[in-house]
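Escalation from tier 1.

The customer reports that the assembly of four entities below gives different structure tokens on two consecutive runs. Tier 1 could not reproduce it. I'm attaching the input and our single run for tier 2 to review.
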Amino acid sequence: MARMPPAERRSAIVEAALRVMTRKGMAATTVRDVADQMGTSSGLIHHYFASMDDLLAVAFDQAASQDLQLTQVAMSRGRDAVERLTTFFGTYTRAEQDWAFQLWLDAWSEAARRPAVRATSQRLNVAWQRLLAETITAGVAEATMTCADPHSSAWRILSLLDGLALQAVAHEGSIDRHAVIAWSAAYTETELGLPEGAIAAPRAQVRSMGPSG
Amino acid sequence: MARMPPAERRSAIVEAALRVMTRKGMAATTVRDVADQMGTSSGLIHHYFASMDDLLAVAFDQAASQDLQLTQVAMSRGRDAVERLTTFFGTYTRAEQDWAFQLWLDAWSEAARRPAVRATSQRLNVAWQRLLAETITAGVAEATMTCADPHSSAWRILSLLDGLALQAVAHEGSIDRHAVIAWSAAYTETELGLPEGAIAAPRAQVRSMGPSG
DNA sequence: GGGCGCGTTGGACATTTGCGCAATAGGCTC
DNA sequence: GAGCCTATTGCGCAAATGTCCAACGCGCCC
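Tier 1 run:
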């Protein structure tokens, strides 16, 4: 394969690893899979990454960090906290892009036995929570929201979102995908003393499937 | 090893598999691990289970079903819906018994690629949701609760519980373990129009760790 | 108590895995 | 264009894995 500058090759490997991870799952991704995906030899991977765990953690880190950063940038354009929360739910795509959320499911499971993966997933989950907490704190300062403990509220909102998305992705058919966003947004309004509908996330077709579904 | 009647041997294998799964994780459990755990040969496992996937799904099914059934039995002793909800949160041990919840994390992750595991985890998650939904419906009939859509409320309560427990187990230190129960119970009260503290789950030491923690 | 059924053995087998290493070759510098 | 640095190769290696199978021996039935 063509010779590449190290930095470029390194990101090519990460990109290839991500492609395989989304196709076969984090746990089932092997050195040879990544090499084949790139069209190079397997030895090359170990020239850039000390171990497979490293590569998996770095790859997951890149995918998840980018997702977070995109949301942060989008939110930063909001003029007030309520607008930023609206953006938060509007751009929450993890549940719709199954592969991205599946990576989170893999990470949470692997966290118990892969220290590098655990450190990454914890750091990024905390970052998501902090993003919410800071927005809430700002909203309280703006007097558009009321919240006794933004830190706790942020954990609850994020956890409800993840818990619902989990069902939607892992058990297709249990929960309507739009309900994941709508229910989380509605709960957020309650939690922050906002009027119903204040977080104007797309709410079309919010209909949960009946007990028989 | 001593000869056993097939039914007995079969459950011995399942029990051994569970023991290994809780120690090494679902994905990392091997035929030889299970055989060693039982003190028998590895060939014996395949005499009772067609494939490793089968065994993993059956073992997870047994553990999770038993957990659910214990809760159901405990709840059935409640005299009204509120009492049953209190029992529900009081006996919710999955977050405290890390190994049990870790199995759920493994199952949700593996669900994407192991049909047998997905079917089991979905069926059991739905059963948990239904248990909640039926209790809520009963509470509404008793006029002690108000809820426009018990089915949806049940999904939200369960998802918040799972989402919080997920953080507590996968990322030790992020969320206080008691907060998982307390926050979920408090949310349930809000969702069902119950007075604060109506669900008298153990609430001691509910203190979330600060942003620096 | 002898014989038979089947629970059980324990290793064979092919495959896959992470990782390492000596050899190769591509491209930049002088 | 020569030479050197290093990116890249491609195989080797040991360990582990799921699955299969022929032989073995325990315990029940006649």
